[in-house]
Design brief:
Blueprint (H helix, E strand, L loop, with lengths): L3 H18 L3 H15 L6 H15 L2 H13 L4 H15 L1 H5 L1 H10 L8
Helix pairs in contact: 1-2, 1-4, 3-4, 3-5, 4-7, 5-7
Length: 119
């Protein structure tokens, strides 16, 4: 599988690999430990946390974050409809700028195997 969203994740992975091997690798390791703890099932399930992250990523207009969290949400059982609804919650909070980037969520859903019912 390849496409623009996967390419964004590959670029992020390459940069992180380079940082991991350098003098700032400890920073990245600690960040990963924190995110693993924050993503763990608790009062909210990982799927729910990823849906929240998709909404935040959309409102922040972070293409790599959108790709990462859509892929993770799908891997944790989210449906395309849940992702699209989470994206519209971001639109409620962020308005037009989030709406103008909602196509990235649809692109990531399609690219990472979720069946989109948006049309």
């Amino acid at each position: 599988m390849s496409g623009p969203m996967k390419n964004l994740l590959d670029q992020m992975s390459e940069a992180n690999a380079e940082i991991s091997e350098g003098k700032y690798g400890a920073y990245l390791r600690e960040f990963r430990r924190f995110t693993a703890a924050a993503h763990a099932d608790g009062a909210l399930l990982r799927k729910q946390k990823e849906l929240i992250a998709v909404g935040i990523a959309l409102s922040k207009r972070c293409e790599r974050c959108i790709a990462y969290h859509v892929k993770a949400a799908l891997a944790n059982g989210a449906t395309a409809d849940e992702l699209i609804e989470a994206a519209f919650v971001a639109v409620i909070m962020d308005g037009g700028p989030a709406l103008s980037h909602i196509g990235l969520v649809l692109d990531a859903v399609r690219e990472f195997g979720g069946e989109s019912h948006a049309s």
